[in-house]
Amino acid sequence: MSVDWCHREPEFAALTRWINDTLINVYTSTGHDFESVILTGSGTAAVEAMLATFAPDKAKTLVVANGVYGERMARILNAHGKPHTVVSSNAIEPMDFAAVRSSLADDKSIRYVATVHHETTTGRLNDVEKLAAICRDADVQLLVDAVSSFGAEAIEAESWNIAALAATANKCLHGIPGLSFVLARSELWNKNTMDAGSVYLDLRSYYASQHGGGYSPYTQSVQAAFALREALLEFAEGGGWVERRNGYRARAATIHAAMQNSGVQALLPAEDCSCVLRSYRLPEGVSYQELHDELKSNGYVIYAGQGELASSIFRIANMGDIRPSELDDFGTIVTSFFKSKHT
Ligand SMILES: *Cc1c(COP(=O)(O)O)cnc(C)c1O
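Above: the input record for the complex with pyridoxal-5'-phosphate. Below: its predicted structure, written as tokens.
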């Protein structure tokens, strides 16, 4: 990351092409029909850019939300003045498939369904396969927020009828914050139909320059691109997304066992959870802040709940460079913390 390259030189253009090419090959299902662009900004920038560029101005997008990130997609469409409707369910519930089915049957102006693959609000891995089957019957494609699943969960872009997905360098790929990316079908990139309603987030301008040489319209986070290169090399050496998922699953199971030993209840059944993050109910008489502070003073950072779950749950993510011994220590610390609360 201390290498100092100018983003307008051919070396950086080559790195941009390499990153885009490597990203579409993380999954075999995106290797043929999809092309990637990178942009500077966090995951939300990629989600917003995807919706600004591809959600239609004249036809509707149906947002299927069961948490903060799904609701955020609706806020983005609203901010861009794009016609949309929302099927919302409570954050602890699965997506409302019956409502999706009837919305698609009733409203033929819906062209895309926008949704979140792994809803990080709770740790639920949404059943995008089931959603996609409903959408396919209505001939509607998906725009997916895959920010916290890309690189660690299965993504079947072909059979799930995905038109585009957005993700980031700094979650399951283990890069650093600052770069995000959107993968979309070539036919979408090449269909220049719409004004994105944004200058910086108009991904077609990125597509034109990154795929016409490798340059970008605006300054990229050069150092974050170097970090992403290393992260992607490490990812491939480690066996790609399947091995990352296996590793995360083992970590999540270790954390889960420590919680069970402490008498702490999981928010969702294990089979509904991603391998990336799980939520647990705060036991009575324990505040999030004291749990957070105790863990942080020992070198571990956890997250609070969001939205309506802000004061009732806490979340533990297991992405990144975590060693087995660190997880064992975490288990010991967390168990003794909760024991001290019972006595
Ligand atoms: C992290 C995350 C985002 C992006 O959040 P940023 O704060 O912009 O990085 C978007 N969607 C989901 C599902 C996420 O987990």
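Notes for the reader.
The chain is about 40% helix and 15% strand.
Residues 156 and 324 are 30 Å apart (CA to CA).
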